[in-house]
Design goal:
Blueprint (H helix, E strand, L loop, with lengths): L6 E4 L5 E7 L5 E7 L2 E8 L2 E3 L2 E2 L4 E16 L6 E15 L5 E9 L2 E8 L5 E7 L2 E3 L5 E6 L5 H4 L3 E6 L12 E2 L3 E4 L6 E7 L7 E7 L2 E6 L6 E4 L2 E2 L2 E7 L2 H6 L2 H4 L18 E5 L1 H4 L4 H14 L3 E4 L9 H14 L3 E7 L7 H16 L4 E5 L6 H16 L3 E4 L8 H4 L3 E4 L17 H6 L25 H10 L4 E3 L4 H6 L4 H9 L6 E4 L8 E8 L2 E8 L5 E4 L11 E8 L5 E9 L6 E4 L4 E8 L1
Parallel strand pairs: 23-24, 23-29, 24-25, 25-26, 26-27, 27-28
Antiparallel strand pairs: 1-2, 2-3, 3-4, 5-6, 5-11, 7-8, 8-9, 9-10, 10-21, 10-22, 11-20, 12-19, 13-14, 13-16, 15-18, 16-17, 17-22, 18-19, 30-31, 31-32, 32-37, 33-36, 34-35, 34-37
Helix pairs in contact: 5-6, 7-8
Length: 612
């Protein structure tokens, strides 16, 4: 079935190939190439179940191939996703145990993914690790998030830094284990790669252990003790993105493509899942009294925001459920939905079919809330993943949306459970309130090409009153550059509406949507140095630029994303100092134009283009 030269899997256009071969020891290994150049020089295949290394001594008994082509709707950086690949199923048999299992693989034009299926398993299986690994080409530079304390792999809230692939096993003071995704700048300008996982259900979340010589291997929270899976074992997909440029990285649907379609039984109607912007009092003032949160509803309505988020502290109100019901009824009259905060540990009990969680969700639904912000999960063990999926399922049964905080990365769950409207798993603006903060500009300039490659993230953008070393225009641009179908705006809504310094940008801020029809990453974007993203909503284009450097820069930005033959009027928001913005009007442009823009140190730039 697989000869000495290996079995070659090809993407639909043929631009990407993955070669699977058997070693002399009858172990499977793979190599991935794009445009004829290595993306992964070598990787191992295999897993250990109930103490048996199923990758050691295997035979390939059958290979089946099919083509997948489908389109579907998404909420995020664009509205339509394309799932197009060649899919392969390798029937394997482990020589010593005789167990038959399957390796499933998919070759896309923008990546390669594989997973293991032990479909004949019954009872319980203890998974004690995987051999899954990836060796990067020499000269690769790897972007990873770093936080030099014990929170690093709990909440994925690290700063994005880079290191030579050769140094990856020594770069962190927290050890060689890194979270995903890892984003790779390939040598000699050959493009970009990212190592991640997709479709994380009934399994432990994968981290990556750097093992030296530019290689990383799957790693799990439970360590050598392993974790238990009931019944058939189907692992998440092990994902490698491979793209020629940053635009390909930003627009890849690979992770969501690898997730199942939503259940028609669980989601017969998704009209309650509405993207939008949320007011949020907590960042600037803390959670308020019922009366103060009612004022926040008024402010959300004045801003045109669809939601308000009531954070930790509402349960200490005099009559929390009655007060909450009165608030949601008032908010509904103002066309504002209410999200409420809940600590995960208070509902994390799987006994009696998650009775504690069900009862809380029932009370929340009866009180009129539209969604829940569930916080402090703080790990990605199998138990934590089971909790997250139970929360999504039970919330869907009650037509509630979920925004997870204190959590690891997304793996495309929002395709299967579209009521996951966002999640944290990112170093966001709340760090500006902490001793570890503030967030540096270069972290923001890295995010669109690193963390957001994995999926949506509740960074909570726009903090004019506490921007750290960044500028006001930089803060406004994050609302365009960062993807979250629930865009929770950090700044005190009263500041946005009343403070003179915010007024030049107020109308633009009100007009920025939470989801987009199309996104383009523009040259000269560079990870950690400059992020320039053009995003379309209907016929209007929004341009957000983040300067990650502490130096002034003049950039020439091509407007080729605009429709040919049409003229556009532009409204620009530019910096006039660290805490001062100006609004500029009167510029009319066409797609052939490439205007020069000036970026202040750690600054930003925003423009809105509407057809004349």
């Amino acid at each position: 079935m697989i000869d000495g030269s290996g079995f070659i899997m090809r993407s639909p256009s043929g631009v990407l190939t993955a070669t699977l071969r058997l070693t002399r020891e009858n172990r499977l290994r793979f190599q991935v190439r794009r445009d004829g150049a290595n993306v992964v020089e070598e990787g191992d295949i295999g897993m250990t179940a109930d103490g048996v290394d199923l990758g050691d001594g295997i035979a390939v008994e059958d290979i089946r191939q099919e083509t997948i082509y489908e389109t579907y709707k998404v909420l995020g950086g664009h509205s339509d996703a394309l799932n197009r690949c060649h899919a392969y199923r390798f029937s394997l048999r482990h020589a010593v145990s005789g167990e038959a299992y399957e390796l499933q693989a998919r070759a896309y034009d923008d990546g390669f993914a594989f997973r293991y299926s032990l479909s004949s398993r019954v009872g319980t299986t203890t998974i004690r690790g995987e051999a899954s690994s990836w060796t990067l080409p020499a000269g690769s530079r790897v972007w990873l998030f770093e936080r030099n304390n014990g929170w690093k792999l709990k909440s994925y809230a690290g700063e994005w830094i880079s290191a030579d692939a050769e140094e990856l096993h020594t770069v962190s003071g927290q050890g060689p284990v890194q979270g995903t995704p890892l984003v790779v700048e390939l040598p000699e300008g050959r493009g970009y790669a990212a190592i991640a996982e997709a479709a994380l259900y009934d399994y432990s979340g994968m981290r990556l252990e750097a093992i030296g010589r530019r290689a990383v291997r799957a790693n799990f929270t439970e360590g050598d003790a392993g974790f238990v899976v009931e019944g058939a074992v189907l692992t998440p997909w092990r994902v490698l993105m491979a793209v020629p440029d940053l635009d390909g990285l930003v627009n890849s649907d690979l992770i969501t493509n690898l997730n199942p379609t939503p259940s028609a039984t669980l989601f017969p109607d998704t009209s309650y899942i509405r993207p939008g912007r949320s007011a949020w009092r907590w960042w600037s003032l803390g959670t308020g009294t019922p009366e103060q949160e009612r004022e926040t509803v008024d402010q959300a309505s004045s801003l045109g925001f669809e939601y308000t988020t009531v954070d930790e502290g509402w349960e200490a109100w005099p009559e929390p459920w009655a007060d909450l019901r009165r608030l949601t009824e008032y908010a509904k009259g103002n066309h504002v939905g209410v999200f409420i905060w809940k600590r995960s540990k208070e509902i994390d009990d799987p006994r009696e079919g998650w009775r504690t969680m069900r009862e809380f969700f029932d009370k929340a639904k009866d009180a009129g809330v539209v969604g829940l912000k569930i916080d402090f999960i703080d790990n990605e063990s199998k138990a934590a993943i089971d909790f997250e999926i139970a929360a999504l399922r039970l919330a869907a049964e009650r037509r509630l949306m979920i925004n997870f905080h204190g959590i690891s990365k997304p793996t495309g769950e929002s395709r299967t459970y579209p009521n996951e409207i966002s999640r944290e798993g990112i170093r966001g603006l709340e760090l500006n309130k902490m001793k570890e903060g503030p967030i540096p500009a270069w972290h923001n300039a890295a995010l669109p090409f690193t963390r957001f490659v994995a999926g949506h993230g509740d960074y909570t953008p726009v903090g004019f009153s506490n921007p750290g070393e960044t500028t006001y225009a930089h803060q406004l641009a994050t609302m365009i550059a960062f993807t979250s179908p629930l865009q929770v705006v950090a700044e005190n809504p009263a500041f946005l509406l009343e403070e003179a310094a915010a007024q030049p940008a107020l109308d633009v801020l009100k007009s920025i949507p939470a989801v987009w029809d199309e996104t383009r990453a523009l040259p000269p974007s560079a990870i950690g140095e400059l992020a320039a993203l053009a995003r379309r909503s209907g016929e209007a284009w929004f341009l957000g630029v983040l300067n990650g450097k502490a130096e002034r820069a003049t950039l020439r930005l091509p407007l080729s994303f605009l429709d040919d033959g049409a003229a556009y009027d532009a409204v620009e928001i530019v910096d006039r100092g660290p805490a001062c913005m100006a609004r500029k009007e009167g510029m009319r442009v066409v797609s052939q134009d490439a205007p020069d823009i000036v970026l202040e140190p750690n600054g930003g730039y925003v423009a809105v283009f509407r057809k004349a």
